[in-house]
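Page 42, continued from yesterday. The earlier attempt failed because a stray header line got pasted into the input along with the sequence. Redoing it now with the clean sequence only.
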Amino acid sequence: MNRYVRLFFIGAFSCLCSALHSQSNFGVNVYSFSQAEGYRALPYADIKDLTGNPIAQSDSLGLAQWNGTTDKQEIMVSALGYTSDTLDVFRDEYAKVILYPEILESTVIQSRRNSRQLGVTLNTTLLDQKDLTKAACCNLSESFETNNSVDVGYTDAITGSKKLHMLGLDGKYAEIRFEGLASIRGLNLLGGMINVPGPFLHSIALSKGSGSIVTGREAISGQIIYNWKPPDCDERLHVNVYLGAYGRLEGNILSTEKISRRWSTLTSVHGMVNNREMDNNGDGFLDLPKNPFHLNVMHRWKYFHKQKWRTQFGFDYSQTELEGGLSSAYRQDSIYNADYRYEQESRRIAAFWKMGRLWDKWSIGFQNRFYLHDREAFFGDNSQALYSTRDYSGQEIFGESKLILEHFWNTTANGEDLNSHTLKFGGGLLVDSLQEAVLGANPLQQERWEFNPYGFAEYTYEFNTSFAWIAGMRVEHHNLYGLYLLPRMNMRWTTPNEWIIKLSAGRSARSPFILTESFGRFASGRQFLIDTEFIDNVYDERAWTYGINLFKNFEIGNTSWEWIIDAYRTDFQRHTVFNIEDPSTIKIQTLQGRAFSNSLQIDLVTNWLDNLKTSISIKGDQTFTTYDGQTLRDPFIPKWVLLQNIAYSLPSEKLRTDFTLTLRGPSRIPSTDNRRSKESPAYATINAQVTYAPNAGHELYIGGENLNVFRQSNPIIRPDGIAQTDVNSPATLFDASMIWGPIFGPRVYLGYRFTFFRHDS
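This time it went through. C-alpha cells are written below.
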C-alpha cells in the first residue's frame, strides 16, 4: 500500500511540475519618480489586464511576478496617488515601468505627460517632451520659452551669452544639475545651457525654493535638474535637424543599443555652425557672434539588475568657438587694424559614475562627478591699443563624490499602513580648483582652491496622501569658509476641500566666480574695481529662502481648471555685489546693507478639450540691493511678466500648433550719464510653432520667435567709443552690456525630427 501511495504522490508531483513548466513566467519592476526622492521601488502597485481583471501586486521591492500561458501580455499598472501606465510584457523577461505622482513637487519637463502634475512635498511643475517641442528647444536655455517661472535673456550685445532669472534672482543662484550631479556652475555658468542639447533631454525638474539638501547646497532660488534620455529608452535612433533664417544650422543624432538584458549604451552627438555676419541695426557690430565650431558628444553605459547592483557611467565633451565684434574686423585686409573683435574658445570634458543597490528597507547610492574646463577669450584689437582690450583665460578642475544611505519603513495601526518614514543620510567631498585672469590695461585675477567635506541627513514623514514633511540638515567644514550648517524644511498638506498647500524654508550657499559672472561686462570700457576687503577676505554667498505654494484643481462642466499661486522671499546674509551705478566702472564688493527679493506668480491653466489647452501666468518680482548706501531695484529685471500660451492639436496629433505671447514690464536701467533713460519700456514678444507628424517617428516643424519684430534700439552705447581711454569722461565710453530686451528681430526656423523606436518598446 505504501508503495502505491508513494507512486501516486510522485506522479502527482511530476504532473504539477509539468504544468508549471508549461506556464510562462512574467515580471515587472515598478518604480516611482519624484524630484525629492528620485527613483524608488513602488510597493503595492496593482497589475491588471486591459479588461480590469487583477493579475498581481508589487512587493516591498516593487517587483510583481506571475505566470501565464502566452509569450506576451498587455497589462496596466496603477497605484494610489500615481498616474497609471500600460505596457507589453514578454515571457521570461522583467519589464520596468515608472509611475509619476499625480501631484508633483516642482517643474519637471518630461516625456509626453501633462504639463502640470503635482505630487510630493517640494514645489514643482511637470512639463513634458510635448511641452519641449512647443518651441525649437535647441538647448536648455530655450526650454523655458513657454514657462513663466524662468526668464532667459542675453548678458550683452557682443558675446551672445545667455542668463536666466528665477524668483527675481540671477541664474547663478539656481542650482542646475545633470541627473543630480554638478553641471552648470563655475566656468560653465557661461555658455553651459547652450551645451545641453534639447533633443537629447528626457526630463527637466525645476523646483522653486531651497529644495532637498541631499541634492546640493547651492539652490538659493531653486533647482533645475535635467536628465538625458537613458541608454535603455525606447528610442533606438533619434535625429533632429534645425535650420534658422540667419544661418544657424544644427544637427543632433542619438543612438541607443541594448547589449544584453542588463547592459545598454547610448551615444549622442550635437553639432552647430553659424558663419553668417548679421548687423540688422547698422551699428557696425555683429548682433550675434559667429559660431564656426560647436560640438557636444556624450557616451554612457547603464547596467540594471532588478535585485542587485545597478550602475551608470559615461563622459561628455564639448567645444565651442565664437567670433564677434565689429564686422569690419573679419575682412581679410583688417587683420592688423585696430578693429574691435571678440573671440572665445571653450573646451570641457566631464565624466560621471553612479552605482547603487536596493534592499527590502534599505538602499545605498554612490555618485561621482569630475570635469575639466578651459576657456580663453579676447576683447579688443589685434594691436591691443584699445583701452577696452581684455585678454581672458580661465581653468577649472572639479570633483565631487557622495555616498547616500536610505532607510524606509512604515508604522501601522489596525493592521494598515498609515505612516511612512524615510531617512536619508551620508556624506561627501567636493574639491574645486579655479584660476581666472584678465590681462590688459585693467588686469584682474582670481585663484581659489576649495576643499569641502560635508555630511547630511534628511527625514521624510508621510501620513496617507494628505500630509508630508521633510526636514534636512547639511554640515560643512570648508577650508575657506569654515564650519557652518544648512538647514532645510518642506511641508505639504491637502486640505479637506482639496487645496494643496506647500511650505518651504531653507538656507543655501555658493562660492562666487567673479570674473565668469562679469564676463558680459568685459564688452565695455568700464574700469573694474575690486574692494580691498573682498581681496583680503574670501567670502561666499549665503541666503535664506522661504516660500508657499497653493494649488487647486476644479471642473466647470467639461472644462478642467488649475489655480497655482507661488510666493517666495529670499534674504541674503552674504552677497557679492556687482555695482554698475557709475557708468565708468564696475565695482565688485561685499554687501554693505540689504539684499532681498520677493516673487509672486499666479497661473491659471485650462483644459477646454482633450486637444485644446490654454494657460495664463502673471509674475511680479521685487529684487533690491544696497548700492553705495542706497537700496535700489536690481537692474534689468522686469517688474512684472505676463505669459499667455495656447496649444491645440488635432485628435490624431498629426498636427500641433502652439502660440505664446509674453509681455514684460519695465526694468531699471543704471546711470548711463544721461545716454539712456532710467527705465526700459514694457514690450511684447510673440512666438509660434506648427508641427506636422504624418506618421509615427516623423515630425516636421516650422516656427518663429519675436514675430512682432521688437528689438532694443541702439543696444550698444557709443559703439564709436571703443578707442576711448579717458575713464573720467564716461559719456564717451563704449558699453555693450546694458541689455534689457531682444537685440535682433524675428527668427524663423525649420526643423525635422526622426525617431526609430525599438520593436520591443
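Notes: The longest strand covers residues 416-440.
Reminder to self: strip header lines before submitting.
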